[in-house]
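Fill in residues.
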């Protein structure tokens, strides 16, 4: 059995770039930075950022284009794919990307870039959403 799975949590380095293919499919590309922090041999704190190229298609691409912006904290899940091409000078170039299957927005719900009950057209409220839960009512 083979497995090609990538999972990252990071922040967008720029606003997503959205395009539509000639056959009408939406595709969005973006870059997510993840940070790694460690202490070196002298006990000094060190940091390194990695930059991940993300590609999303169809409905997921539309959601990303609508709600995410530079600095948004996000979880992505997908598969790794490397593509190659020749540049203008005939040199072979490679780019490894995460083809996103799933995305979760991790910023606070009050942020400008995220939907809330007030600004999401499909959001529905019910009494259960607004009812306060009493700790004594929990059966465990």
């Amino acid at each position: 059995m083979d497995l090609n799975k990538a999972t990252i949590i990071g922040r967008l380095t720029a606003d997503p770039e959205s395009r539509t293919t000639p056959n009408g499919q939406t595709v969005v590309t973006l870059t997510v930075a993840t940070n790694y922090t460690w202490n070196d041999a002298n006990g000094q704190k060190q940091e390194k950022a990695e930059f991940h190229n993300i590609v999303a298609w169809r409905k997921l691409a539309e959601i990303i284009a609508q709600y995410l912006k530079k600095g948004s904290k996000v979880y992505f899940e997908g598969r790794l794919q490397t593509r190659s091409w020749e540049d203008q000078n005939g040199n072979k170039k490679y780019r490894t990307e995460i083809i996103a299957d799933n995305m979760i927005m991790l910023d606070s719900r009050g942020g400008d870039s995220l939907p809330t009950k007030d600004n999401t057209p499909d959001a529905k409220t019910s009494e259960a959403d607004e009812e306060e839960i009493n700790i004594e009512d929990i059966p465990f």
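Residues 8 and 43 are 27 Å apart (CA to CA).
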